[in-house]
Every structure is written in C-alpha cells, then in structure tokens.
C-alpha cells in the first residue's frame, strides 16, 4: 500500500486549528462537521443496536484484521444484501474496534464516542428516498449516479466521473465501504470501476462477507422480515494485489474474496477446461 498522510480539516483558520485538540471544529474534506456526524452515527447506532443483538443475533469474525489499520486509505469491499442494514452494522463494528472490542459489539459504550472518519458508497437515488435515508446520508454517504441501473431498471447513461473523485478524497481522509457489485442481487458481476479505484489509490483492501441480512430485513434494511435470524459479518485478511495485475485479474480476486462465485460455476469452468 502506498502511504497517504492523513489530512486534518478544520473550520478554524491556520494556525488556530492546532488549538482544537478535541476536534470540536474539525470537518471532513467535503465540509461536513465531524462532531455532527458523530452525533448522527451515535443516534442511529442507539436506535438500531437492538436489531442486531436482541431482535436478531450477530456473529462477527476477523476484527483482528482491523486492529492495526491506518486511519485512512482503507477500502472495505463486501457483498450487499440491503440498502442500509449492512452499512449500519459495519459502522457499529468500526466504532467498537476503535474502543478495543474484538468480534463483538456488546456492550454499546463505543457509541459514546463513535468513529467519524468512515464513509460508504451509495446510489444517489437510494439516499433521496425518505427522511430516514437522508439522515443516514449525513453519516458519511458518498453518493454516486449509477450508469447501469436506476429505480430498479437497467439503464445506459454516462459514467459519473465525479464518483471516483469523491471516493479518492474520502480514502485520503478515512475508511470507505464499497459494494463492488453495485446491487443487492446475489452473484452479480463485480464492476470494473472497483479495480480501477484500487489501481489508482493502492489502498489496503479488506474483503468482507456478510450473510443473514436479506432474511432478517426488507430490501431497504429498515423493516424486519424475520426475527431471531443469525446475522454474520466476516472480515478477511487484506487482499494482496500486485502492481502488474490487470483489471480482469483484480476483478476475479475481489469476486472470490467476497465469495460471489455463482454456485456450480467452478464445476462448469473445470468441465469446460477438461
């Protein structure tokens, strides 16, 4: 990974910003007040905590891979099952790890001072649907216009080039969660933009595999479908990607790492090769 020195942004002019030891006036590169973001993350965290620990049960594995990560230029790549429940669960874990928790979010004391340098990539249309979505967006959403899908329909439109810039800026400031399939549909193809993003920024790439969220929550992740569901989040060791690897090779690595091989695909490939 190429080291990227983290930048501290503040509403105070230099050199007065050095006096803000507790980060009261600190903001992110997009001009959002980090104190306000912490309040939003804490509020959403308290509101949703029991859906992961009481209404359902969550199993967390692999947080040892998060313990010594730098505060920025870390990219989490995961399969996707709901619009919001997945991301909120990730934020719970990230904040718990900051407090020294290992593979658990019990008890929720970490919500007293949540981690703020964290972002997630989301479709613009998703974050504009309803007041709750707009509130969640304040917690660190990097909104993008998808070029291949809109309102549940396949479309063809120009690529949102500003999305790459947003993610690059966010990586320089903190951690970014991205869903490389760009949809909650299982076994969907990995978007090549993910490979280009990795090649351009050389981040630490942490693969994540989640399960149970689709059974427990509706598509938006706001309502319960089935209670007492076993949820799981498994963080894997950082993905090793060589500087000479092609886009196709990186896409294949990501697909395997987040376990999105189509069932029976490898048997078909091996049979074809034989």
Task: Note the topology.
Layout: E1 9-10, E2 26-27, H1 34-53, E3 57-61, E4 74-78, H2 85-98, E5 118-123, H3 131-137, E6 141-144, E7 149-150, E8 153-154, H4 161-173, E9 175-178, H5 192-201, E10 204-211, H6 213-216, E11 230-235, H7 247-257, H8 265-273
Parallel strand pairs: 3-11, 4-9, 4-10, 5-6, 5-9
Antiparallel strand pairs: 1-2, 7-8, 10-11
Helix pairs in contact: 1-2, 5-7
Which structural class fits the helix and strand makeup? alpha/beta
Number of helices: 8
- What is the number of beta strands? 11
Globular, elongated, flat, extended or rod-shaped: what is the shape?
globular
- In order across it, which strands form the biggest sheet? 3-11-10-4-9-5-6
Tell me the fraction of residues in β-strands, as a range: 15-25%
Q: How much helicity do the residues have?
A: 25-40%
Helix-strand topology string: EEHEEHEHEEEHEHEHEHH
Global Rg: 19 Å
Unreliably modeled segments: 266-274
Q: Return the average pLDDT rounded to an integer.
A: 89
Instruction: Kindly report how far apart the N and C termini lie.
Output: 38 Å
Report the sheet with the most strands, covering strand number, pairing sense and barrel closure.
7 strands, mixed
Keywords: Acyltransferase, Transferase
GO molecular function, one term: acyltransferase activity
Protein name: 1-acyl-sn-glycerol-3-phosphate acyltransferase
Domain Phospholipid/glycerol acyltransferase: 74-213
